[in-house]
Structure formats: C-alpha cells, structure tokens
C-alpha cells in the first residue's frame, strides 16, 4: 500500500512539475517598448486580474465569515503561551519538508539546522511544543526551490480558499504536499485526516497572528488587492533570496534629470 | 630605446592616474555611507526618544513625525517614483497636486501608528553602497516581545544633504508597494491620475476622522 501510494504521489508531483513548465512557458513576459512599461510588466504580471479580483473578493468574504472570527476567538480565548506552543508544534512539523527543500536548493547548512531543530524540539521540546533549538529556520518550499532552479514565476494567481500565489508557488505547494514526510507518516498510519487538520490549524494559527497587520494594511490602502499582490510578491522574492539584501533588485530612483545613471555593483 | 622610455613614462602616468581615479571615488563612497549611517542613527535616536517620551501628547508626537517626514525624506523624489510611468503623462499641475496629496497620505497612514509604540528599539548595523549617490543602511528593530524586524533605509545624496528615498521592511520596499498600488488605481477605467488624487484625498479624510 505504501509503495503504491508513493508511486502515485510521485506521478502527481511529476504532473504538477510538467504543468508548471507548460504554464511558465506560455507566460514568458515579452519585452514591450519603453523601459517604464518593461519595469511595470516585470513588477506585476497579472494577466488573469479580473478572475483574480473575483476570487480575492470571494476569499475576503470567506475570511470575514469563517477564518477571521475563528482566529479572533482563538486569540481571545487561548492564552499566549498555549498559542505559542501550537505555533511551535506546527513549525516543528514543517522542518522535514524545509529540510528536503534546502537539500534540493543546495543549502546544506540550512538543511542541517532543520535537522537540528526537528530532533532537538521533538525530543527535548516535548514533541515540538517548545522551541528549544531556537534556530528560527526560514520557510522553504518547492516554489522557492523551483525559483533557485531558474523556473520563472508565471502569472499571479488568487487561489480560492488558499489566497495569493505565483503559479510557481502554487505548483510548488502541490509538490510539497506530496513530498512531505509528515504526510507520508500519517498515511502509513491510516491517519488520513491529518493533512486537513494540519492545514486548518495552520490557517487559524497564521491568521490569528496577522489580524492586526492585515487590518492595518487594509485600512491604509486605496486598492487592497493591488497592495496584497505587491506585498505577496516582494515577500516571496525575499524568501527565495533567503533574506539576503537584494540591492540589485532595487529599482532605479535616479530619474533622467540626474547627472549619472545608477551604477549597480 | 626612446620608444621604450616613452612607453614606460606613459605607463607610469597611466598608473598614477588610475590610482587617483580609484582612490577618489573610494573616499567619497566611504564618506557617503558614513553620512547615511549618521543620518539614520540620528533619526533612530530621535524617533525612539520622541515615541518613548510620555510628557508629549499624541498630537505633539504627530507634529514631530510630520517634521521628520518633511526634513529627512526626499518626498518629491519618492512621489515621482511611486507615480511610475504616469509621472511623465501627468500635467505639471497634476504633479504638484499629487506630491502634496501623497505627502498628506503618508502622514495620515503612518502617524496613527505612533500610539502603538511599546518599547521597540532601533539597532543600526552597517551601510552598503548602491551606486555613486545612494547607500543602503541596514538596521534591526528589536522588540521586547517577538523576533527582531529587519529594516533597511535607502539613503540618497540629493545635493541638498542626505535624504531617505525608501524604507525596506523585511525585504518589502514601501516605495515599490505604493507604486504598485497607485499604478493599479490609475489604470482602472475612468480613474487616471486625477482619480488617484481623489481617492487619496478620501483616504486622508477618513483617516483623520
């Protein structure tokens, strides 16, 4: 049974990868005339904007009806130390897939940190409830791994229920699900609902920690959709670069009335 | 022989010229980064002092913030940047009006965060050079509860002193975020630059109530 599910998972993963390549192939941005247009083009590639805006509204309504109230209740009722332990527990479960992705990206030191966190926190941190290792490992996923392999990000998508994704990240998310050792372990032990429960718990956990920030962003933006799209894409780029200062990615602010063009070093 | 000597002289002069060439910008670059570091350090000290000062009212703190925004940020440049490709198409009246409204929008958006100060501190790390005029000052906001936040300041030598042109929080550039948002508003049917200006004005009005 285990073998069969492994091979079928592999098939899904391969299909997802093929789909990604197909989509990103059609989506190679063409250079338009004029620098400004090319820059804007590069900044926001959202050919499906009307559909995305529709699902953005749908997700907003779903969030307002279900996720946000639950997250608010959770934040109001459950004391902070317990919530921290929930966060720690969920983060600990992510270390194996982070490790796999770090290996695939050639980041062996970071993979070592994932291993260290997982072993330390699982055994000394009571199954991951306490963060003993305190390594603050950054999120790693197949979307980022694809990026380091040179796969283009493809069009921006707003996926129903799941929210903003680049096409690359959306396909990566599917691949992550099928590569995650925790999901395998759950399946092997006939705990088929673990994936769903885990996704739900992560959703509430993450939403409860972003209530104030998201409210703030919404209040201060005149186009919430566009702001979220920009924040999402910049954050993805930051994750892909592992937080390294991306000075070469900073846009030119010298303008043509200035003496010298910006020299990148 | 003569050829050889000439060649040698030429080489010597070239070498001297090159060292002079290499040295001059290097010195300039260092002082430029030093100036940027000093500016951000000043701002950080001032901001924390103001925010933590319980004798100041919220309104006084807000006035401090406005002064800080006008003096330390190159608002016209940021305004021009966030308008992106639409700056060129806008009339000079629209440009002037936009710059004014954009400045008020920034004040309205950020000044209400003043009250939420809870013991954060700004730790300046170092500065790297971006080009002959700009440097990036790296700093970290340390918080009593929660992990530190990475904050980079893009500082530019404007010829009128060092000014901040962008703030980058955890890899997210404020200028780019605003540009993206504004471009989206302008490109909507029937909006244009005037539509954006009106939307910003509405936003300022709701924020100040």
TrEMBL record, chain A:
Signal peptide interval: 1-27
InterPro entries with a match to the protein in the record = MlaA
Q: Record keywords: DNA-binding included?
A: no
| Keyword terms | Lipoprotein, Signal
| GO (cellular component) term, any one | membrane
**Gene Ontology annotations of biological process type:** intermembrane phospholipid transfer
Pfam families recorded:
MlaA
Q: What protein family is recorded?
A: Belongs to the MlaA family.
Q: What is this protein called?
A: VacJ family lipoprotein
Organism field: Sneathiella chungangensis
């Amino acid at each position: 049974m285990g073998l069969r599910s492994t091979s079928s998972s592999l098939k899904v993963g391969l299909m997802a990868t093929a789909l990604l390549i197909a989509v990103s192939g059609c989506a190679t941005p063409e250079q338009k005339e004029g620098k400004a247009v090319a820059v804007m083009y590069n900044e926001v590639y959202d050919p499906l904007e009307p559909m995305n805006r529709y699902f953005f509204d749908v997700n907003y309504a779903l969030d307002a009806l279900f996720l946000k109230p639950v997250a608010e209740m959770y934040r109001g009722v459950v004391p902070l130390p317990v919530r921290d332990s929930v966060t720690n527990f969920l983060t600990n479960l992510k270390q194996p897939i982070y490790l796999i992705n770090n290996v695939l990206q050639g980041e062996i030191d970071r993979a070592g940190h994932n291993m260290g966190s997982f072993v330390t926190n699982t055994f000394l941190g009571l199954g991951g409830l306490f963060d003993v290792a305190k390594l603050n490992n950054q999120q790693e996923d197949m979307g980022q791994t694809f990026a380091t392999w040179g796969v283009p990000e493809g069009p921006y998508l707003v996926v129903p229920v799941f929210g903003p994704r680049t096409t690359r990240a959306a396909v990566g998310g599917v691949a992550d699900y099928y590569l995650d050792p925790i999901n395998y372990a759950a399946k092997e032990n006939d705990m088929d609902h673990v994936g769903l429960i885990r996704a739900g718990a992560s959703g509430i956990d993450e939403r409860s920690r972003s209530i104030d920030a998201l409210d703030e962003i919404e209040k201060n933006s005149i186009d919430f959709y566009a702001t979220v799209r920009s924040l999402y894409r910049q954050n993805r780029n930051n994750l892909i670069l592992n937080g390294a200062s991306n000075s070469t990615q900073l846009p030119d602010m010298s303008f043509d009335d200035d003496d010298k063009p910006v020299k990148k070093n | 022989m003569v050829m050889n000597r000439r060649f040698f002289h030429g080489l010597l002069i070239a070498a001297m010229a090159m060292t002079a060439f290499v040295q001059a910008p290097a010195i300039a670059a260092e002082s430029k980064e030093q100036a940027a570091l000093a500016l951000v350090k000043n701002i950080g000290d001032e901001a924390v002092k103001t925010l933590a000062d319980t004798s100041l009212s919220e309104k006084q703190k807000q006035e401090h913030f406005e002064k800080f925004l006008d003096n330390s940020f190159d608002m016209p440049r940021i305004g021009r940047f966030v308008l992106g490709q639409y700056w060129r198409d806008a009339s000079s009246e629209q440009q002037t009006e936009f710059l004014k409204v954009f400045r008020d929008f920034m004040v309205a958006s950020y000044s209400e965060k003043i009250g939420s100060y809870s013991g954060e501190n700004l730790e300046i790390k170092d500065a790297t050079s971006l080009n002959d005029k700009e440097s990036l000052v790296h700093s970290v906001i340390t918080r009593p509860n929660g992990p530190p936040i990475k904050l980079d300041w893009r500082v530019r030598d404007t010829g009128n002193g060092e000014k901040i042109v962008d703030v980058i929080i955890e890899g997210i550039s404020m200028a780019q975020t605003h540009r993206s948002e504004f471009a989206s508003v302008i490109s909507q049917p029937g909006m244009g630059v005037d539509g954006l200006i009106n939307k910003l004005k509405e936003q300022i009005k709701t924020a100040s109530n």
